[in-house]
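Continuing from the previous page of notes. For each protein in this section, the sequence appears first, followed by its structure tokens. Read the first protein now.
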Amino acid sequence: MKPYTYFISDLHLSAQRPDITACLASFLSDQALGADALYVLGDLFEYWIGDDDRNEFSEHVASLFKQFSQTGVPIYFIHGNRDFLIREKFARRAGMTILNQQHVIDLYGTPTLLMHGDELCTLDLAYQKFRKKARGWWWPRMILNLPLWVRRKIAEKGRKTSQQNQQKLSMEIMDVTSAEVVNYMQEYNVQQLIHGHTHRPAIHQLEVNSKPALRIVLGDWYDQGSMLKITPKSIDLISADLTTPP
């Protein structure tokens, strides 16, 4: 069997959507088995309030990944805007390795930049202001020192506020800024970028440093069932029907 690597993003797992968790379990026990690696590019959970929030749902998700990692497939995780409070304790329970917010890999000979993608949406000024605070050192530490019930209330309120704001923002503001895409690709000296966040799965051709380049965007799992499978000779952006497990 030829080598392949899988990328997923924006699963938004929650106890209220057991069907999506069932789809993840099916994916890990079927398509992803035997992969060279699995990369989870953020927003694995609808929200995450701390590794100390150990409950039946979060422990089940951790066990799914842990069992998968024990088959020999390494799992790599990049924080999203919903789960940036995931720390090493959960990562160890899930058999994952946490990567930096921007991370370059050698993908079958092609240097490829990986990220969640929210840093590319620079026109959403209010969110970028929050992101800078949330990804800093003091704000997460302060939040994680609060009682779990307080953190849960903050997360639920933040989610409602985010949904209301998204209804007011234009599609242009919520999408990536083209110039920022080029800036990051130039900074990391790559011609290929893979990210999620925008829920707009597509393969975009562009030009970086006067050379052809690719920006591959993963979709979410609620509406698009988006998965990316890359081999040394192919790029397959899959849209699966997740009304039943794949």
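Done with the first. The second protein uses the same format. Note its length before scrolling.
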Amino acid sequence: MRRPIAILAPLACALTGAPAAHAADRIFGDGFDPTGWVQGYYVGYERTLLAPQDIPFDAVTHLMVGRVTPLAGGGVSNDFDIDTVNGPLFAQAAVDAAHTAGRKAILMVGGAGEIDGWRDAASAANRAVFVANLLARMDQYGLDGIDLDWEPLDDADKVPFKAVAAALRAARPQMLLTVPVGWFNPNYMTPDPYWAEIAPLFDRINVMTYDMAGAALQGWDGWKSWHNSALYNTDPPTVSTPSAVDVSFRLGFLPTGVPAAKLGIGLAFYGYCWQGVTAPHQDGGSISASDGTMSYATIATQYPVATTRQWDAAAHVPYLSSVAAIGPAGCNFVSYDDAQSVAEKGAYAKAHGIGSVIIWTIGQGHVASNPPGSRDPLLDALRTSYLPP
């Protein structure tokens, strides 16, 4: 997942005591039993974008409540990137809203920028304390499972990561356990058998098929301008723009032996603002804004979509193109997803038997200024194309 805007001082103490009382838990009630999951990340630092009572749970099966972080010594933070008073209130309200709607709630642990905490907490010396604290934190809010967001997961981290997952699974065989993993770049990667090795421990292994582009001038050597989250690419993929949802799923993860029903793909409810280029496949340019400042809601309401939108028929995603700078961030090329591309990605996941779609983040897709009933157009499109009627 993405790194939060602000990281506040965490609470390092171990947890004790029984779980608190919670709202009535009628999870997946009324006969609703989806084979495909929609896992929507809902994070504390975006709490003003979408209130718990406004979450459209008809399009979200699992609310990913974020986040807590691993701490040195095996502790687990409890501020949810807010503070230690209002963070827990946010988390409990989110969990209760999910359960009241008959959905499940999963605790997001970690995220980008937390690698030092992961490595210390998951070490042999601290692992038992860490696992106990994770379970205690899950119980504190009445959550249904844990999402282990360890990134980057380098080769040296794979043994301790598996050990943490195995300890959690042994302690709570019925809990939900998910993991988001990096996308596949065919320029230098080969399918990794590690995912098949750890697959029995997890309910879903979700590929973060976004943030799949960058500018050569900003460290992405050999790249041209490209989409944040293209659905398709050429076969074989273009070396200077090698990424796509289909590339990661079909070439990177399905060949490992993990069944499609246990794999997930990712949707970004935010876009990229490029300056200095006006379309994909161009040399030069730089990315000046992305997650947070370039939410779908911002693009839909503050950018001239009607007059600058183009459709990439090969990649199956839209983009905005303008020689003159547009919008608050002064963009020439805006890569993003809209209802059409989200519907295509949902249909792709359904057609290939893919077990889940993750969303970073549902708050960024909420257009509060739209009339009631039309404030979450991306989730509406995903519900129609991916979830059962």
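What the second structure shows: The chain has one domain: 37-269+337-386. Confidence is low (pLDDT under 50) at residues 2-26. We return to this in next week's lecture.
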